[in-house]
Amino acid sequence: MKLGVxxxxxxxxxxLFNAITKAGAMSANYPFxxxxxxxxxxxxxxxxxxxxxxxxxxxxxxxxxxxFVDIAGLVKGASLGxxxxxxxxxxxxxxxxxxxxxxxxxDPNVIHVEGRVDPKSDIEIINLELILADIDSVDKRLxxxxxxxxxxxxxxxxxxxxxxxxxDTLAQNLPARxxxxxxxxxxxxxxxxxxxxxxVIYAANVSEDDIGEQDNQYVAKVREIADAENAEVITVCAxxxxxxxxxxxEDKEEMLQELGIKQSGLDxxxxxxxxxxxxxxxxxxxxxxxxxxTIPIGTKAPQAAGKIHTDFEKGFIKAxxxxxxxxxxxxxxxxxxxxxxxxxxxxxxVVQDGDVMLFKFNV
Length: 363
Prior knowledge:
Structural class: alpha/beta
Shape: flat
Strand order of the largest sheet: 2-4-1-5-6-7
Oligomer: single chain
Number of helices: 14
Radius of gyration: 23 Å
């Protein structure tokens, strides 16, 4: 999973990125501090792995991971190349989802590129640049496809229709993901790799005083926009996240309790990303290692096996499956088997979040 962190310059984007990845990306009080995208790999916190590691006394624990890409601050005119815009937009095209960091705090000491704090305007600037870039991509593709349509190509006709639906949506300053497409048309649209088809999470960056409190006026505006787009919103304080990232797990938990926060911004973000992209994890466990494997919700057993190794999918015979809670409660795989809690599942089994699986295969 690859997530692109975007936002106008000086909204706290790189500070947030540093905090969640500990990658030490450059952060400064001036635009275009980030030119080449910084990349950080984050382990997905999963208490189930910790418990399984203790149960099996495993030599190694391997968490699922998320790749965060800190994409440079966009400005008006990015779609036309302003502020190195074309380069930045190409980085966005490579990610699975967008984390849009929005400034929701007042601070006269932190320059705002537009000279004022206005989340609605900030979001509109970014969204418009992405929409304009997509309109350009759609127009170019329409020109190419039109020739095949004239030649009677049925696939080209279907693609042409989808492109025009998306173009009409974009013309209303709406992202392509809101285009009214049926399932077959959505499959066609995926091949266009448009920027505004990517799902979005808005990260409302608030001050230290506002963390854990009710939404301030700025966050309320962000939620209003997100609701209209069917997007997610999380509230974070980049400064606090930066402090939390330097603490031990115990001290981090203590600080969260003091602040009255149930989850860190990182944990909120990861949970939201999994939900947004319809992902979940199954687990494998043993003395050598315990590991979490990320798969789309609805994945069947052979495809889950293929996540481990392609040979597992090709030669899939069956899977031994036990619920994580049953495994822990009964003290191990063999004990769960004795109690009849381990099931044999075939090719049509749809894997569930938290399944602990042992695959049988023959190549």
